[in-house]
Design brief:
mainly alpha, two-stranded antiparallel ribbon, globular
Length: 263
């Protein structure tokens, strides 16, 4: 106590160094600052490598001015699978989350169901009339990339090919419009791998070109296939899976090509 009444000096309490270190270590550990990084998944890394190799097969060429395009040049929502359902109905059935309620008289008609929209990360529940089935390679983009010189039958095949169809919300479909990967990417980055995969496989199957900016955009998205956060939906294989390899082999076989590892 000092010479002045009522004044008390309190000596600071010193914690043992070991105890302080232990507390700091506990806090750091709980925050994950020094966690070991997650080891890369070899299947995902291999899937990314395959997809980048497929991207290298696409011809890079500048797009000509758009002349003569019309959606009517691409007859769509036809049955090309022989299922008895239209291509839109097939996509809705294949990509639904869980069971759907079908019309009792017309089994191709879905009354309601649940779908996950990869582009914007929205889960939609209800009547499918309120959602879209998007051509991931848009019809106008296909026209600019070589389809203007196709026969009407080949454009019909393309416009109904399940390889290029993805169930998405109307809003995200409108935002994407007819843009390619050089001008637009899904706002949800965990959809980049599947989006790049669908575009690359579709453009390979139909021998469409990509311009330089689009190729760069596809390259950026394809590299995310190494990451563990990449999402997909039922019926749409993720690179690195046997289903994706089967699809890639089928597309290449149509072109008289094989995967490098297949000899």
């Amino acid at each position: 106590m000092s010479g002045r009444r009522g004044t008390v000096r309190v000596r600071p309490r010193v914690r043992p160094v070991a105890a302080v270190v232990a507390v700091v270590a506990l806090v750091v550990s709980s925050c994950g600052f020094f966690d070991e990084p997650e080891p890369p998944d070899p299947d995902r890394a291999a899937g990314a490598a395959v997809l980048l190799g497929l991207l290298d097969l696409l011809v890079v060429a500048e797009e000509p001015p758009r002349v003569g395009y019309s959606r009517d040049e691409f007859p769509h929502w036809h049955d090309i699978s022989g299922s008895g359902c239209t291509a839109r109905q097939d996509a809705l059935l294949a990509q639904a989350q869980g069971l759907v309620q079908r019309d009792l008289v017309q089994p191709c008609v879905i009354v309601e169901g649940d779908w996950y929209s990869l582009f914007d990360g929205v889960t939609f529940s209800g009547a499918p009339a309120e959602i879209d089935v998007d051509h991931v390679v848009a019809l106008a983009e296909a026209w600019d990339s070589g389809a203007s010189g196709w026969t009407l039958e080949r454009r019909r095949q393309f416009a109904n090919d399940p390889l290029n169809l993805l169930v998405v919300t109307r809003r995200s479909n409108r935002e994407k419009a007819d843009l390619d990967a050089g001008d637009w990417k899904p706002p949800m980055a965990d959809a980049w791998c599947v989006t790049a995969s669908m575009v690359i496989l579709t453009k390979l199957r139909y021998e469409m070109t990509v311009d330089a900016a689009e190729r760069d955009g596809l390259d950026e998205m394809a590299r995310t296939c190494e990451r563990s956060d990449q999402r997909t939906v039922p019926g749409v294989p993720l690179p690195g899976t046997p289903e994706f390899l089967g699809t890639a082999r089928a597309v290449l076989a149509e072109r008289g090509l094989t995967l490098p590892d297949d000899g």
